[in-house]
Amino acid sequence: MNKNLTSKIYKYESDGRKKGSVLNYLKACAVSELKKETLETWEVLNTHVYTFDGETFVTINLEKYTTLLPAQLMKALERRRADLGLSKHALCQKAGIHHSTYHKMLNKGIATNLNIAYKLCEAVDIEIKFELK
Fold it and tell me: pTM for this one?
């Protein structure tokens, strides 16, 4: 199994709350538990709800953030976005990424892969080069 992917399974017990709020609570629990176990940041990829022997369970699949982006890159992206008069949402649409991905990058300086950073830079005409050492 890929070390950057993992799953958590929880028994689904509704306490009168809507299904969506229970799932959001379980997602937060999974991320928090993994952060305590591994000291790394995780993101929920997807969830699956299923029934087995009359009981309902939720499988939460998670992916580890793998790329730390330099603060200068994020500052340059934000400055260029503002200069072009683009909203954050418009930038994400132009780059073809989900806006929540951009907000995570902006707030935490992390991305799940360098391709996302490249797409954002390309969308605002910033030339970026990666050097492997």
Answer: 0.47
78-117 residue pLDDT tens = 889 999 999 989 999 998 888 887 877 777 666 656 777 7
Q: To the nearest 10°, the Cα dihedral for 23, 28, 29, 32?
A: 160
Angle at 4 between CA 31 and CA 40, to 5 degrees: 45
pLDDT at res. 103: 79
Question: Cα-flanking dihedrals φ and ψ of residue 24, to 5°?
Answer: -65, -40
N residues, the chain: 133
CA distances from 67 to 20, 54, 64, 79, 93 (A): 30, 41, 9, 21, 22
Residue 105 burial by CB count (10 A; 0-12/13-18/19+): exposed, middle or buried?
Answer: buried
